[in-house]
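seq:
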Amino acid sequence: MKITISSKTLSHLFILFLAFYFSTPISEACHRNDKAALLDFKNKITSDPSNLLKSWTSSSDCCTTWEGVACDSSGRVVNVSRPGLFSGDDFITDTYMSGSLSPSLGNLSFLRFLDLSNLKELTGPLPPELGRLWHLTHIFLDANKLNGSIPTTFRRLVRLQKLYLDGNYLSGVLHSTVIESLTSLSELGLSGNQFSGSLPSSIGKLVLLTKLDAHGNKISGSIPPGIGKLKSLKYFDLSDNEITGSLPSSLGGLSDLVQLYLNHNQITGSIPPSISGLSSLQFWRMSENRITSGIPAAIGKLSKLQRLILENNKLTGKLPSTIGNLTSLTEIFFSNNYFTGKIPSSIGKIQNLQTLDLSRNLLSGSVPPQIANLRQLQTVDLSFNPLKLVSIPTWFAKMNLFKLVLAGTGIAGELPGWLGSSPVAVLDLSSNALTGKLPHWIGNMTNLSFLNLSNNGFHSAVPVEFKNLSLLMDLDLHSNNFTGHLKTILTKSVRDPLGRFNSIDLSGNMFMGPIDESIGEKPSMSSIKSLILSYNPLGGSIPKSLGKLRELRVVELVGNGISGAIPAELGGAEELETIKLSRNKLSGGIPDKVLNLDKLQEFDVSQNQLSGRIPPHKAKIPPTAFMDNPGLCGSPLPPCKNS
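struct:
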């Protein structure tokens, strides 16, 4: 999540200032050239449902009666502001206009401020004629459907301070001659377009730039070293592009930089020690790249850093102990790298830390007990590291955690009793060597909303106290040896509006059936999206009431010994995308309504006793999904004999 100060909010305050400034008596009526230009712009608008341009008539004065237009004392238009999103003291309006930008706008030769942002349906190119407006200081054309490239004539806009073109369909390269000419720019917004090519080295000439946002494009090449000349830069976002190469050491020269987002690129090489110069940095996201080597010890000098996200890279080596100097940090995300060695005890000094995610690395050794000193800590994820914990450290009992994830960390034996009084809401202890019974005190963990104990060795029935988990929404117990009936789980209590199941995976156990015929009417099941019960000896039949689960997207009942027919009522679950019913004893035909669910993508009834013609269907389902049903025929299987 990016935290930004809205430049658009500030710009709209500037609009109010202009409105006040130009509310002084105007000695001259609207200039005829300006009026003609604006009427031509209106003529190119094909739809204006909120009548933003209603007051723009040929019989009235554009300086005194046209909404969104302001003039100077000589009657020349200096401000045109008709955004699609605006507010007053007691209202917010969100509207649109359809049409294109008239080249005649280029005749507004005294125009300083142009805001046609958030109109959503403006199409066509940026008129090259806008390059004639050398008085322009602000252009806001973001959140439309404009296409084409930035005209080279924009190089003449030497007074331009803010340029926002975000959220359009603009493409082409960023011309160096244009970029290097805009030396008055303080804010540049190009995000959410289709710009390609490299970021020109001439960007280094925009020394007044405080914000550079070009995320969500197709920009390639490396970050130019000249970026280090932008000493006023506070916000820098090139995320979601195709940036390659390594980080330039000059990046460390951006001492005013507060937010740096370079995630989702193809950046390689190491993090340069020069990052110690980023003394104002608060938010840094470098995730989803190919960064190698270790984190330099110099990172400890970033004393204002609050969020550090380096997950999904190829970082190696030990975590530097200097990380403990980052006392302003609230979030650390280092997952899915190749970090080795022990978790540094200095992490226990980061008193403001709320999230610690070191999952999916090669960390080993004991977990430092100093972590228990972090009273603000809400989330700990150390999963899938070769920590060989054997047991969960008892000092975790002292912590007020919301989320504890220790999957695949070598925990063995029974669940520790202190969990019964833990306030934890998200607990994942999957892929360990836990054994024994699921304890009765599990029912005391009433804050639980997510529980994953899959891939362990539990071998008991689920205790009746499980019904007390009235906030539980996601349950994964797959690949254990649980026994008993499903009823205890499916009839658990609900604490409205929470506590209704979102997902259940009980596959690969020894649960007994049959599935309750009224499963689709249970309060706990009314919002379920994924129900996976495969490979349990359930027997019985498929309940018709499953069709009442209006949000169900996935149902998997593979290898359950289920017999009887596939109920046509299952077609009532209109959100279904995946239906897997293979390796059972199902008989009869395949209901047309089920096979023709609008959102169906995956369907498998192989290895049953089904018969009859396969109903014609739109979904692309392979023949293997119908195999080993001797009585089935019709596409994609061989034709029926009586056809």
